[in-house]
Specification:
Length: 237
C-alpha cells in the first residue's frame, strides 16, 4: 500500500467527519494515536474534549445550547490496563466492559452497529492499542451500513502487528461532505507518523477544515515504559 501524506489526506477532504489515526512514531519509541471530531450543525460544534482520568470525554462547550446529547456526548478514549481504546462513540464503553470480561475487541464490536442517524447511518470506527513487554500492536474497526441499507451491517477489522516506525493508519467516517454523507470505504489509509508529538498535533489540526473542525486529541505512549504525553486542542476555548 502506498504511504499517503496525512496533511494532504486531511486538507483534501472538507468533511472527513470523525477520524482515528494509530501508528508508531518515526523514532520507533512511541505508540501514537489521534482522534478528531468535526461538526456541521450548531449542536455538533458545541463541544470540547476534556480529560477524564487516563481517557477523555466530550462535553458541551455551552451547556445551555446542548440539544440532543445521544450521539455527541461520550468517552472517545479509555484505558484498560495496557490497552488504549479509541472510538467515535459510546462503543468505547462496550469494548472496555466486554474486554474486561475477557472478550476480544472484535467480539465486543459484534454487539454494535452503525449509528442510528438516518439517512447517514454514520459508521462506528474504533481502534485498540496493545503494549506488552516492549512490544506493540494495534487494530482498527469500522461498522457500516450496506450502501445505506440499515437492515444490513458490514463489519471490518484490520490488525497490525509490530508496526513499522514512522507509519500509521487513518480511518474516518465520511469520504467527504454530502447529503446523505457518504461512508468511508476501503482499508485504513497508510500515512506517515512524525517523531514529535507537538509537530504531529500541529500537522493534524492545521490541515483539518477550519470551518468544520471541533476538537483533537493526540497521545504518544512510550512503548518501553507505558508513560504517555497527551495534547488536546479545542476550537472552542
Amino acid at each position: 500500500m502506498e504511504k499517503k501524506s496525512l496533511a494532504q489526506e486531511l486538507a483534501g477532504n472538507s468533511y472527513p467527519g470523525r477520524g482515528i489515526i494509530i501508528g508508531k512514531s518515526a523514532d520507533a519509541k512511541y505508540a501514537v494515536t489521534a482522534y478528531f471530531i468535526m461538526g456541521r450543525s450548531a449542536n455538533s460544534r458545541n463541544r470540547i474534549f476534556a480529560e477524564d482520568g487516563a481517557g477523555i470525554r466530550t462535553q458541551a462547550y455551552d451547556p445551555s445550547k446542548l440539544e440532543d446529547p445521544s450521539l455527541i456526548i461520550y468517552a472517545p478514549v479509555r484505558v484498560l490496563g495496557n490497552k488504549t481504546i479509541v472510538t467515535n462513540g459510546d462503543q468505547t464503553d462496550t469494548v472496555y466492559e466486554l474486554m474486561d470480561r475477557q472478550q476480544t475487541f472484535e467480539q465486543a464490536l459484534r454487539t454494535r452497529e452503525f449509528e442510528p442517524d438516518a439517512p447517514n447511518y454514520t459508521p462506528r470506527i474504533s481502534g485498540i492499542m496493545h503494549l506488552e513487554n516492549g512490544g506493540y500492536n494495534y487494530a482498527m474497526s469500522i461498522l457500516k451500513s450496506n450502501h445505506g441499507d440499515p437492515s444490513s451491517c458490514c463489519r471490518y477489522t484490520f490488525a497490525y502487528e509490530n508496526p513499522a516506525a514512522g507509519e500509521g493508519h487513518f480511518i474516518h467516517t465520511y469520504r467527504g461532505d454530502g447529503n446523505p454523507l457518504p461512508s468511508f470505504e476501503g482499508e485504513p489509509v497508510l500515512v506517515g507518523i512524525e517523531e514529535d508529538i507537538d509537530s504531529f498535533t500541529k500537522t493534524v489540526w492545521d490541515n483539518l477544515n477550519e470551518e468544520n473542525k471541533v476538537s483533537l486529541f493526540v497521545r504518544y505512549i512510550d512503548i518501553a515504559s507505558g508513560q504517555y504525553e497527551t495534547r488536546i486542542v479545542n476550537k472552542n476555548q
